[in-house]
Amino acid sequence: MSHTVKITPVSVHIGAEIHGVDLSAPLSDAEVDAIRDALLTWKVVFFRGQHLDHARHVAFARLFGAPTPAHVVFGGADPDHPEVYSVAKHRVANSRDAAAVRPWSGWHTDITAAINPPAASILRGETVPPYGGDTQWTNLAAAYGALSPPMREFVDGLRGVHRFEVPASAGTSGKYGEAVRNRLMISEHPMVRVHPETGERVLYVSPGFLKSVVGLTATESRHLLEILWDHAVQPRFTVRFRWEPGSVAFWDNRSTAHLAPVDIFDTEFDRQFYRVTVMGDVPVGPDGSPSISVEGRPIEPA
User: Fold this and answer.
1) Which CATH superfamily does the domain covering 6-295 fall into?
2) Against a cut of 0.90, is the pTM above it?
3) Catalytic residue, candidates 201, 254, 271, 275
4) Which of 20, 133, 253, 263 stands 20 to 30 A from 46 (CA)?
């Protein structure tokens, strides 16, 4: 590990702050290796006081792989930086239907409807509320390991169908719905994927995209998914990050799910963040079988 890089874990199973690096400057090979090792160990890493522009944000991401387009469905707003996605407060309509909220509501792994979901995501805070707006992540490798042996053996052999759909709160008309229909993505992924770098088995059950379990009845599928989602988002597997201006979060999309905040909709505070995602591979299950594309094209580099 680089002598300048300090790794400080912030919870037992997931999350660490990294100090001693300036992401706006070129990084040494030792610093990049230290960050990569910390990411693989802690699943999400956080940096403070990093005031990046779009160009430096993209340059940092390139150290860990080829950036994807800003958003494979919605694109980006900056033609000079097609890799940068604007995560604004009101980018998607917010649903306040309390009856529909479950413990796993809003939790997701980025773009798992694609055959090759992004390997990692890097989010920076530019306009940050004085309070509220925290983001949460959960460790899906730890969640898998905490299942009972019979349940692990059962889910090891299952596959799930992931779809990118228009949320009911957004409606099916307008540019949002049109964009989703024009870039339809449906993929069948193993419900347990083997992490390509660590070899860990990961409970690959993104609540935001996983719609059904292959081979089960609709009732069986719904009940099993609710059991697994409820398990995966238990607080013991999670970390909650308090943002500050200049904060950066870098997470492994292959072993985590995350939850964007909704409390900010109860305030007048603005919130403007920017995200870059890194190209990923096709998930593979414990039996060595890769995911299957049901509909749609793979994600390609920006």
Assistant:
1) Clavaminate synthase-like (3.60.130.10)
2) yes
3) 275
4) 263
- How many CA atoms are closer than 13 Å to the CA of 136, on its beta-carbon side? 22
Q: Establish whether 287 is a catalytic residue.
A: no
Q: Token pair for residue 195? A: 């992490």
Task: Please tell me the distance from the alpha carbon of residue 33 to that of residue 41, in angstroms, as a whole number.
Answer: 12
| CA–CA gap between residue 144 and residue 198 (Å, rounded) | 14
Please say whether the beta carbons of 135 and 250 come within 8 A.
no
Please say if 19 is a catalytic residue: no
Instruction: Determine contact, residues 296/163, Cβ cutoff 8 Å.
Output: no
Instruction: State the catalytic residue, choosing from 13, 57, 81, 110.
Output: 110
Cβ pair 136, 209 in contact under 8 A: no
Pairing relationship of beta strands 238-241 and 248-252 according to DSSP bridges: unpaired
Model confidence over 72-90: pLDDT tens digits? 888 887 899 999 999 998 7
Do the strands 16-19 and 44-47 form a parallel or antiparallel pair, or are they unpaired? Answer: parallel
Instruction: State pLDDT tens for residues 188-206.
Output: 999 999 999 999 999 999 9
Q: Tokens representing 236?
A: 């013991």
Residue 268: φ, ψ to 5° = -95, 5
Residue 242 catalytic? no
To the query of whether residue 56 is one of the catalytic residues in this protein, the response is no
Name the catalytic one among 54, 56, 108, 152. 108
Mention every residue, 6+ apart, whose C-beta is less than 8 A from residue 272. Answer: 86, 87, 88, 89, 126, 127
